Amino acid sequence: MTKTSKKKATIYDLSVLSGSSPSTVSAVLNGTWQKRRIKESTAALIRDLAETHQYTANRQARGLRSSRSGLIGLLLPVHDNRYFSSMAQTFEAHVRSKGQCPIVVSASRDPEEERRTAETLISYSIDELFICGATDPDGVHEVCETVGLKHINIDLPGTKVPSVISDNYEGGRMLTEAIIRRFPADQPLRADELYLFGGRDDHASRERIRGFRAVKRELLGDDPDGCILPTGYAPNTARLAFEAFYEKNGKLPRALFVNSSINFEGLLRFMAGHPHENFADLTVGCYDYDPFASFLPFPVIMIRQDVEGMITKAFEVIEEGRPQPRIHLISPELVQPRTALTGPLDALKDIG
Amino acid sequence: MTKTSKKKATIYDLSVLSGSSPSTVSAVLNGTWQKRRIKESTAALIRDLAETHQYTANRQARGLRSSRSGLIGLLLPVHDNRYFSSMAQTFEAHVRSKGQCPIVVSASRDPEEERRTAETLISYSIDELFICGATDPDGVHEVCETVGLKHINIDLPGTKVPSVISDNYEGGRMLTEAIIRRFPADQPLRADELYLFGGRDDHASRERIRGFRAVKRELLGDDPDGCILPTGYAPNTARLAFEAFYEKNGKLPRALFVNSSINFEGLLRFMAGHPHENFADLTVGCYDYDPFASFLPFPVIMIRQDVEGMITKAFEVIEEGRPQPRIHLISPELVQPRTALTGPLDALKDIG
DNA sequence: CTTGTTTGCACAATCGATGGTGCAAAGACT
DNA sequence: AGTCTTTGCACCATCGATTGTGCAAACAAG
Fold first, then answer.
1. Which residues are registered as beta bridge partners of B285?
2. What would the mean pLDDT of B180-209 be, rounded to a whole number?
3. What's the fold here for domain A168-304?
4. Is the pLDDT assigned to residue B5 strictly greater than 60?
5. DSSP code of B166?
């Protein structure tokens, strides 16, 4: 409480205290003072005052003037999911290391909401926007384009700007093959015993399904249409699909390709209503990685998407001048059952 | 591309187009026009122009003038964890419904980083700050206090402003009791067979430990000090603790109270290196809920903290004028093994 | 027709930082 | 001593919206 306890110091305050003009103070504190030939001693004085008065620049004012805000946005479908929250965590680290401020917002996979959210971010003059898992990336693109905002797609591709996405076809192949190979030669999996649940008509699902079908044909010789059940991404619609299958067939398929961890939660909900033992010999492949899921009582093979790789690539690409709208594929990783991988959290120090 | 493709329309543009003054345009578009006695027809004309030119206010300018930004901040330890990402998801929904913009940032449980992050958010003139799981809430408080920023603590309490936290003592008791009661009368759990792993010297851990010890004394008649092993929150330090215990005793304790899902990941890492069968009769209680963890091959009893309840309460409290720095306890919920609960995602529509 | 009131809006200062431009004082040079 | 350069900084417009104030025109009252 030694001084002005309630209001933040401005360059005008420091200007009075230092006897210099506001522009001099500004130049000193934003680093352009050499260019403006400010004396070292003047600069030192001002830096000193800034320190003792805890000056920090008002970013709204700076942003208004310079039409840049220092904010970098990440548009996510949802937060509470390991995949997307890893995105957020990794993104944040990258943005912070560039000395900017991350702003992470979700838009619920709703195209309308996606555009509105982008508009909102734009009204804060964000400097760049990373569009992750958007249902309508090109819709968001329109919004960004009209104001000249740099942007890039992640996870789901658009057609107007570069996209950095998982190699879902390859991942789908890897996962399908790994599932099939778990079955011994004397009790091989039949083509009609391996089902794919979840996902919807988006690029990622389509590619995974393409990989799934290709490998089934190659290894199992057949690929019945009925084995593909896109349920959307909501856990409960997935649960209902499992419920319906079980109702009709008295059991689950011998092996499942589950399209995402959120869909996998639908499987859990289904299982909660049925005795444990019914699923003792089920084999599951899940396109997403979750450490706990990896240790479930039946074999769970997972795909871990390379979040760090995607974010890193996305930052590289967005820095390029006028990049082509091409798609950059990042290879995912197959994770065998009972595997506990490290994640972004391990990079943090723990001051236990 | 019909019009000004590159720059956003401002009130000055609309002012020229409509033949009114900028202040009139401003008043019409921010809703204060009745107070300023603007004719309905004038207002209609301006609204119309705004619509066709896709006008949206520059929030930096507005914020600069009104020293409010429409941003509400949430300071988190980390993103990629179900508990905190649920916080983010729930927080976002609340903020959005108030017509404001959420800004969620993590600070890695580092007191220094927490303060710096708060400073940064303040430089954007955020309107309120929710401090969640901060290692040093009172440090962040100082920062907020000097600029008169409304703030509140969640998950970990501070002493200067109200805090909304889980009832960790009660939760610790519930979980401990549930663990103990899982053992049959003929093979009861002994006091030296139930260990607590994880957490550190923060309010939440202390309260949970207090509940743990109280119930052990009440039900098991004893409470050996050696059964408490705070390992910090990093998964790997927890893993090492399990490793060390196993090394020394040739097995894990019969029952574990694991302080958080992040610590639980440490247990998984430990398990990955050992044969499955070694843990067939392990009983685990975990203070956090994760649907996949709930279905692991050994009984896992979990505590789900009431994230929705905490956020709701926090918004209530922060709206009050000068609230007392008291602690509001929100009861958590005990979750039996093999339970798949719904979460914030279920509130979203899925346009599958 | 004059005075008083209401209606409808324009004007201008302001928020805090930025950056182009101008200009006095100090130093260099002939 | 007079001219030219360099140094060191102040001045001021600007970004876009908000808001207190003032004032003409329209209308009402007497």
1. B257, B301
2. 96
3. Rossmann fold (3.40.50)
4. no
5. E
